[in-house]
Amino acid sequence: MKKVVWALIDSRKGSAGQIRGVVQQLDAAKFAVIEKNIEYTALSALPNFLRGASLLGLASSSVPEINRDFPDVVISGSRRSAPVSRWIKKHSGGKTKIVQILYPGAFGRKDYDLIFVPEHDRGKISGDNVRFTIGSPHRVTPQSLAAARREWEKAFVALPRPLTALIIGGNIKGKGFTEENAKTLAQAVKEYHNKTGGSLLVTDSWRTGENMEKLILNILKGIPSYNYLWGDKSSNPFMGYLACADNIIVTGDSVSMCCEACGTGKPVFIFTGKGWLTPKHLRFVDSLTSGGYAAVLSQDNLSFVPAASLNPAAEIAAEITALFKI
Question: Could you tell me if residue 300 is left (phi over 0), alpha (psi between -120 and 50 degrees) or otherwise beta?
Fold first, then answer.
């Protein structure tokens, strides 16, 4: 009989994507996954030591989602959902195992069967139920890449090879994406193209900013490219970029973008800039480069070949499976 999994999905795309990345790695012959879409009220902003193991902060429309036909395991992925998963375990009489993606805080930590924390967030976190991964789980798999390639390869067929995906982030909390860094990135990409040739597959973020976007594109003018920029209402080719690119250049401000790029198994070059990334971001980039998944963007690293593709979702799924000895 299959083990039943509840995946607690809320409006935060980052945590939702991580949970979905994990459950798609579970063996469908052994697990039946049910998504529980939950919404919150303003009370969810209360500290978890006040919310406890409760449904406090859960919107009334979402309460019926958490019925008493309790599953074998719950996977949650945010601080706000942590009290909900702990409530489920308590009211199941301990039948339900609970797994947390990202650290929920020290309060109630012992209730979790497994907690997964990115290596760059390790700090002073410890515990028998804590596991550390390089980067965060994502949904990039050979299957998803193959599907995206079939969908998008015709769109890029006229572009000279090799294709280099350029994935641009931007401002982060307390750290602006400066004109200096935008220029440095664009110039580094231009020099990269001068040595490799081919074309660019360009995309950016709302955090890039219109001025920095224009500056970068102006410096890269003349290089063959396919651009999908923030605000474009057409189909998003991001997965098509990952699937069809021969090489990937990505800014180091986004854990998810870098992890997804490294999940392709293709050469990934990370731009770190100057005075921009936080110490945590720099630890993250170091974990990718030390593990052989990526290289820092430099004219000295153009021959980089990754040691492996990054797949923390598979590692987490294997640990969940081991809980049941199946």
Answer: alpha
Q: Is the pTM of this model over 0.85?
A: yes
**Which residues are CB-contacts of 123 (< 8 A; sequence separation ≥ 6)?**
none
Mind listing the pLDDT tens digit for each residue in 75-117? 999 889 999 999 999 999 999 999 999 898 888 889 999 999 9
Helix (H) or strand (E) run with residue 34 in it: strand 31-37
Tell me the C-alpha distance between 59 and 87, whole Å: 15
Tell me which residue of 107, 55, 63 sits closest to 81, measured CA to CA. Answer: 55
Residues comprising the chain, all counted: 326
Q: How far is CA 238 from CA 17, 74, 204, 225, in A?
A: 14, 30, 10, 14
pLDDT tens-digit readout, 212-230: 999 999 999 999 999 999 9
User: DSSP code of 120?
Assistant: G
Rounded Cα gap, residues 294 and 301, in angstroms: 10
**Which amino acid is residue 89, in one-letter code?**
K
In the block, tokens 């170091």 appear at: 286
The alpha carbon dihedral of 158, 164, 165, 167 has a sign of negative
Strand-pair category, 97-101 with 114-118: parallel
Taking the C-alpha atoms of residue 266 and residue 292, their distance in angstroms, rounded to an integer, is 11
What are the DSSP E strand ranges found in 142-190?
Answer: 163-167
Six token digits for residue 56: 């406090």
